[in-house]
Write a structure and sequence with these properties.
Number of strands: 0
Distance between the termini: 31 Å
Radius of gyration: 11 Å
Largest sheet: none
Structural class: mainly alpha
Number of helices: 1
Helix content: 10-25%
Length: 43
């Protein structure tokens, strides 16, 4: 089943590292993207 978006809801606890290697359309993992952006951000 193809998906366009997968949402991981962690509640108030966001981790810097993920156990799963989720790869986006650009070939970067979520961790590689966060590393290039200075970490995860939320509003």
């Amino acid at each position: 089943m193809p998906f366009d978006v997968i949402i991981f809801a962690t509640g108030p606890f966001a981790a810097d590292r993920y156990a799963l290697a989720v790869v986006g359309a650009t070939g970067k993992t979520v961790q590689e993207y966060y590393d290039s952006q200075g970490g995860p951000k939320a509003y």
